[in-house]
Structures are given as C-alpha cells and as structure tokens.
Recover the amino acids of this structure.
C-alpha cells in the first residue's frame, strides 16, 4: 500500500498520475516498477491514469536498447495515457548519431554512450558514421519524436527543470533538458509544480514548487515513481 502525504497541488477528481524518474538502462528496475504500478491500479482503480517517463532511458546502464524496446511496445500497465519525455542523454545520443559536430560522438561516449552502443551490439571500435545504420530505425524514431514537456492541470512534467522567471510556454529546449541552477535553488512560483529528474539525490524531494524524482537507479539508488492523485502524493520504488 502506498503511503500518501500532502501534495503541493491538487488534481481533478478521478485523475491519477504515475511519473517515473531517470532509468539509464536499468531494465529490470523499470519492469519491476511497472509491475508495481499495475498492482496499485488493480488494488485502487482510477478513472483516468496517466503513466509518464521523464527521460534518460539510455546510457550508463547495460540495457539501453532493451529499455527503448520495452517502452515502444508499451509497458503492461492499464493506464489510459502514456507519455514519454526526452532527457539530455537522448539529446546527446541523437546529436552523436547524426554527427551534428565533430565533438558530439566523443561527448556522448564519455557520458555513458559506450554502454548504450554495447546494448545495441556496437563496439566502440565502430566509427560514428556507422552507428545510425546499426541501431534499429524504430528505436531512433522513438527517441527523435520524444516530447520535451507535458502539462496536466497544476503539474508540469519535464526532464531537468525550468528557468525561473520565464513563462512555461517560453521555456527553451536546452533549459528543459539540462538546467540545474538557478532552478534547483529557486523558491519561485513557476506557474505550475515542476516534476523532474536529471539531478540525482538519495531520496525524492518535495518542495511547494517542484518534485524531484531522480534517485540514482544506475548508481545503486532506487528507480522512483511519484504517484499524484487529488491533493496527495506517494512513491513507488524498485
């Protein structure tokens, strides 16, 4: 049973949101967490449930390709809506595979890209010009088409965060995928409660203006899902 506490915002009655933090190639944890979400929905049915993933599916862990394949084929969760957002690691991967500049492949490799390549059966000795041809087209299209943000009522879901003082509709793609400061220190009202990952902490963080759920699954922490409903929140972890 999920232990519920007061949330910083209130959803429309009948709505429930499950938002999952940074996966980083940890397929086993993701599958387990999806099973927990399905069990929670079976025990506590919701009129309209949405499952949101906050990005960083690839890099550092051993199963990036398998995580992408799992998401493409839809997790066995009886939700009415599924939303997959982009993380900065997906952006790095796309830039590297497309060779947008000469530094992009090296930048990706040094940030966990080598582990992702191995999950697709690609050795580091394979030149970057061949990467795109060796990664399934379906996987590349899935990553390319990921949304950068998603709003449901008083909550704004994004990978990294937002620039304080800038309206949500004017936020830049770069900030939403990469920002840390001044966002993390800000106590400003952003126009919605920001639910994000990107900056790993040992435990989820709940402030009046943001909820952080990257708890370092790939470095020995948990994979975290925040459950939002009415004026409450709770957490599932695997």
């Amino acid at each position: 049973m999920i232990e519920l506490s007061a949330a910083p915002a209130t959803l429309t009655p009948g709505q429930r949101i499950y938002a999952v933090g940074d996966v980083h190639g940890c397929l086993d944890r993701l599958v387990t967490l999806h099973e927990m979400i399905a069990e929670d929905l079976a025990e506590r049915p919701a009129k309209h449930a949405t499952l949101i993933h906050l990005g960083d599916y690839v890099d550092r862990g051993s199963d990036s390709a398998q995580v992408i394949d799992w998401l493409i084929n839809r997790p066995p969760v009886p939700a009415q809506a599924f939303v997959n957002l982009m993380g900065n690691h997906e952006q790095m991967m796309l830039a590297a595979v497309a060779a947008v500049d000469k530094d992009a492949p090296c930048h990706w490799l040094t940030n966990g890209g080598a582990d992702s390549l191995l999950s697709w059966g690609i050795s580091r000795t394979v030149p970057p010009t061949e990467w795109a041809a060796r990664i399934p087209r379906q996987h590349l299209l899935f990553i390319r088409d990921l949304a950068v943000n998603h709003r449901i009522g008083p909550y704004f879901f994004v990978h990294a965060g937002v620039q304080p003082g800038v309206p949500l509709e004017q936020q830049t793609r770069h900030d939403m995928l990469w920002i840390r400061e001044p966002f993390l220190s800000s106590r400003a009202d952003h126009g919605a409660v920001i639910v994000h990952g990107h900056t790993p902490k040992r435990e989820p963080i709940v402030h009046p203006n943001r909820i952080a759920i990257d708890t370092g699954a790939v470095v020995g922490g948990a994979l975290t899902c925040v459950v939002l409903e009415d004026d409450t929140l709770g957490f599932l972890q695997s």
User: Anything to note?
Assistant: The chain has one domain: 5-237. The helical segments are 27-43, 64-72, 88-98, 104-119, 131-134, 137-144, 173-178. The chain has seven helices and eleven strands. The radius of gyration is 17 Å.
